[in-house]
Amino acid sequence: MPSALAQLFLPAECLLCQAVLPFARSDDLVCAVCRHRWRPVRPPWCERCGQPEPHFGPCRLCRDWPGALERVRSAVWLDGPARRAVHALKYGGLPRIAADLAAVMGKHLAPPDEGACLVPVPLAPRRLRRRGYNQSEALARALGAAWRRPVRGLLARLRETATQTTLTPAARLANVAGAFQARNGEAGMRNAARSRRSALVLVDDVFTTGATIAAAARALAQAGATRITAVTFGRAVIPDFT
Ligand SMILES: [Zn+2]
Ligand SMILES: [Zn+2]
Prior knowledge:
four-stranded parallel beta sheet; globular; binds zinc ion
């Protein structure tokens, strides 16, 4: 039986723990208990990149980021239960789970200023065709509806980059350099940001070292964006590079 049809006849279950969902919450894919197990990322953190502060010296994670990228925040730590939710979003063919993830982002993250617009981190065309949807766009749409901010596809991805979690932040930056390009260049940016004070908010599913977000921000900045922030659902626990 096709899964959409099956959902009509079976009692709704939590995607992660298979607990039966209460009738009033049967549109959710993740139950309240599982959501409660997602650990919010909390301060103290680096004011700019949102990573817990290093014990000594300045933050190395965001040192080489483009100047226009002002602030990045993530809703929850990407450990067990949150990782399974992201996996379902990316590989489970379940863009609908984006609503559950975006609800948690909306709960833990401050909404952007009036006039800001959300910019999903794009996939390269081949990956988009294979997956059928861009998980970051699904998140951005759900968040945009909650925050009442428009979603603009201002970026194109020229190539996909292999996930290389073992690389240092500097090596990861080099790895994704030039992977993104702004669509319609400066004209697109002028339309998106009515005033130069309007922020563009990059939206992605996961933050690992921030290299992808930094590369995306660099492409927006090169096209004229001056204020860029970013939000992600999950933040990977990375080894200490200091
Ligand atoms: Zn559950
Ligand atoms: Zn930092």
